[in-house]
Design a protein that fits this description.
single chain, 236 residues, mainly beta, 8-stranded antiparallel β-barrel, 1 helix, 10% helix, signal
Length: 236
């Protein structure tokens, strides 16, 4: 009888210990793992400053006046640029980013040089602005993204030829293509900075140059340029 009572007592005591232990140390729920935030996709806009180094060739056709064809070669049109840019990015699988971007830059760049086979005749080329609409593709590497870019570009130019006291001038807007590369860095969830290089071939165009009267000549501008800019942008 004593053995039975002792067995029952031990069983009840063991059950109490198990129940008490369950109340003291409950099983913790599994932690919830959140997905990383994609801070590269979406709409953005920014400001940039930089430099422009251009090469201009100008041909003049004045055969109607008996002077023939003259040329001005290799004008080094260099100076300052500053403007705005903006676009939209999509971050794809494997950290590949694609996007579309537009930019517009004020340009203060010019150069002048002598016209061949003449005495005292000079050409001056000035670039006023640059614009482009491009695609971008890059690889996100944590806070950095190297990328390539390319698309269509436009440039606005003033061209003047001066012969003594007589000046002929015209304005041209050229359309061409551009290609480049850059590196972008994330400073915060919304703020990004970058350095970018673009080469642009604006093509060529022929316009009629007038002086203050009715005298004119025809001229063709062929222009390409290098542009290096430093920018900062905000993600919306």
């Amino acid at each position: 009888m004593k053995k039975i009572s002792l067995s029952v007592f031990m069983a009840l005591g063991f059950s109490s210990i198990v129940m008490a232990g369950g109340n003291i140390a409950p099983v913790a729920p599994a932690p919830v793992v959140s997905e990383p935030v994609d801070s590269w996709s979406g709409l953005y806009a920014g400001l940039q400053v930089g430099g422009v180094w251009g090469d201009a060739d100008v041909d003049y056709d004045n055969t109607g006046s008996g002077f023939g064809i003259y040329r001005t070669y290799d004008l080094d049109v260099d100076g300052f640029s500053g403007g705005v840019y903006g676009g939209y990015n999509w971050l794809l699988d494997n950290d590949l980013l694609v996007g579309v971007e537009g930019e517009w830059n004020y340009v203060d760049a010019d150069d002048s040089g002598p016209v061949t086979n003449t005495q005292g005749v000079f050409t001056k080329v000035e670039q006023n602005w640059d614009a482009s609409l491009r695609l971008r593709a890059g690889m996100v590497m944590e806070d950095f993204m190297p990328y390539l870019t390319g698309g269509v570009a436009w440039g606005d130019f003033d061209v003047t030829v001066t012969d003594g006291s007589v000046s002929y001038s015209t304005s041209m807007t050229l359309t061409g293509w551009t290609i480049g590369a850059g590196v972008e860095k994330k400073l915060s969830e919304d703020l990004y900075t970058r350095i970018q290089y673009r080469y642009t071939d604006y093509g060529d165009d022929t316009e009629r140059f007038y002086d203050n009267g009715e005298t004119y000549l025809d001229g063709k501008l062929d222009y390409n340029a290098h542009m290096l800019t430093l920018g900062i942008s905000y993600r919306f």
